[in-house]
UniProtKB/TrEMBL annotation:
This is PH domain-containing protein. It comes from Noctiluca scintillans. Residues 255-282 form a coiled coil. The lineage of its organism: Eukaryota, Sar, Alveolata, Dinophyceae, Noctilucales. Gene3D superfamilies: Pleckstrin-homology domain (PH domain)/Phosphotyrosine-binding domain (PTB). InterPro entries: PH-like_dom_sf (IPR011993). It comes from the Eukaryota. The keyword Ubl conjugation does not apply.
Amino acid sequence: MSAIYKEKASDLEFEQYREIRRHARRMQAGTPLLLQSVINSKEELQICTFWISQDLQQLRWTVQDADGEVHEVPVSNIVEVLEDKSDVPEMGFARGQADEQHSLTVVLRDSQGTSAMGLICATPEDMTTWREGLRFIVGAQQLRRPSPEPVPVPVSVATTRSPRVTRAKAPAFPARPATARRAQVTDDLSQRLSLQEETIGKLKQENTMLQEMMKRKDLTLAQLLRDSQTRSTERCNKTESTSRESDDHLRDREVTILRRKNARLKKTLKTKQQTIAQLLELLGKALKQQGVESSAFEEEDEKDDDDDDSDVLPPKIVETVKVPRRENKQQKKVVVSVPRQPVEQEPAESEASSEDIEQIAKKLERLERDVAGMHGDPVSLPASSSAPSSARAAESPSQARNACSAVPVRTAPNLSSNALSNLLDGMSPSLRSWSQGEGAVAVPPVPSSAGFDFSAVGGGPPGVRKSTASLQKLAEDMALLEEKKRRVEQLAKSLEPPSEDEDDGFPLR
């Protein structure tokens, strides 16, 4: 049991040691206290900061409103630390409702005798710290030195607080009247009360503002919940500012796209205008180069092919067709000799004439194919000569063969309808009458077999009729192309901007 008691005692002593150590550290850190002093026979309270030196040998303090002068008292001069437990009721409050005054009286010994110093603590913890800490330090100092003679204590302190001290010399801090002390405490408490009331008012205002904010927050949350339930997420997230920015961006994007399209269209229009100008220039050159001049003249037959012919053939019609070439711009003359009057054909030569006519038909068919596939490069076309038909036997076989002889002709570039009309005007009247009788339009795309009198051989062969139909179709296509060209020129004039260097004011990147 003794061991248990010793262990408990040691634990208690250790706890007391820790408590004293904590008090000493707080005293070394410093604590604001009220110092009661008498100046010019008036009792005043000064706010001071008290602390203990690190070696626990000096008690120091400074007045906060002063110039910062440090006052100190040796701990060895402290005789006793007394606690004032009297309650000071406030005005209008009963005892028990008022704050308890936490004050200490420190009895000091000096060269003139003894004096008392009153300290008022703000909290009970501060009073406990300074009371227990000073008592422990003073007790330790007294244990180290021999017990001195009894030190007189001030009369007021001796009569009211310490019965052991019977008398004292003139105190440096005389006892204060109770009424003045209570008035001072009342003033302090009233100031604290006013500060507390102001703080409470501010807190109430802040509380009211916070409550209003909470109400608005609840309303906002409820509105957002309703919006999320009734509308989609995109519409919920889309605000007025974002919508306006999106609309502006879309408008700028559309304007940019339209300006780029406008620039591309201007570029395309410029290219088309250049192409049209080149085509018009080329067409003018072609019309100028492809003017057809035809002249018909009669000349005597230099030599008769058959000596047995007693009939004298009239002079032959010779037509000259000038066909320009694009490459070297040279002209060739196609001379076709056609007898003006038919000659009787011997029965033995009918088969040869038929073969010649078939050859002419084949050549004209090839002409039709070449005309259909003509796109720009010149194609060599044979100009077929007319041969006498078996029905007309007024000409000798040799003359028929000479009449049916083919003369090669080089084609020129695509001719316009006016040039081709001029070319047709230079043909023989018999070919024009035959072409009109067949319903063909005498506007061939290439120089045809001008100067042939198909009436002398009983009308055109089947190949010639097919070629005439093809020429008619080609003439219609050329007329349609002329109409389209005219429309394109009108459209180009209508789409042409007032100035090619016109700037739209929006630089495209």
